[in-house]
Amino acid sequence: MSSNVQLHSWWSLSDALRRQVLGLQIDPVQTEYAGTIERAISSLGETEDENMAGLAILRSGEGVGFVVLKRGDKAPAWAAPGWAVVSAMRVDRRQQGGGVGSQALVALSPWLRQHWPACHTLALAVDEENARGIKAYTRAGFADAGQREQGRIGWVRYMHKPVGAQGSHEVSQVTPRC
Question: I want to staple 65 with a disulfide (CB 3.0 to 4.6 A). Which of 57, 138, 162, 173 is the partner?
């Protein structure tokens, strides 16, 4: 799948792009699963944190989505060492169905290789009822880990994929920095 989306750090965005991201129109169902954009951005804190990244999803230079990545002490308890966790990804409802979410998920691996090279696995938790999310995650190469738990609004499944080398499913060695 050829990607025409780019990921840019919240901290590097211009004021205009920040306003675009804050103005995303998120489907109420997606907000139920992932929370609001404002909550995601406020979770980043006031300054950049080496174990958390807020990434704007840009398509043709326009803000069309947002995702938070967590690792190390910011990752949830279920995440293994060396994992980066996708947290509360959102895509503007006007962009839904056009592959933006799947392309952004694919773009996360090269972003990790460049910015967090010690992370060898990309993981996420998804509500069982979020069929659109599960479909997008599967299309982007995530596999069901076979684990289910009762979550905040229902059953949650865990999915993951190796980051590996470009075009490969190799898993790099675990290092303590991720």
Answer: 57
Distance of CA 84 to the CA centre of its chain: 9
Residue 72 sits in a domain whose CATH number is 3.40.630.30
Which pLDDT score is estimated for 19? 94
Task: Examine the pLDDT at 168 and tell me if it is beyond 80.
Answer: no
On the 0-12 / 13-18 / 19+ scale of CB atoms within 10 A, 152 is exposed
The domain tally of the chain equals: 1
Q: Which residue has the higher pLDDT, 34 or 94?
A: 94
Instruction: Give the lowest-confidence range in 49-53, 73-77, 154-158.
Output: 154-158
Alpha carbon distance 87, 126 (integer Å): 9
172 domain residue, yes or no: no
Do the domain assignments include residue 176? no
Whole-number Å distance between alpha carbons of 159 and 147: 9
Taking a C-beta distance cutoff of 8 angstroms, is the pair 11, 50 a contact?
no
In a domain, 169, yes or no: no
Three-state DSSP state, 149: strand
**Residue 24 lies in domain:** 5-162
CB within 8 Å of 20: residues ≥ 6 apart = 62, 63
Identify the CA nearest to 38 among candidates 54, 61, 49.
54
Residue 16 lies in a domain: yes
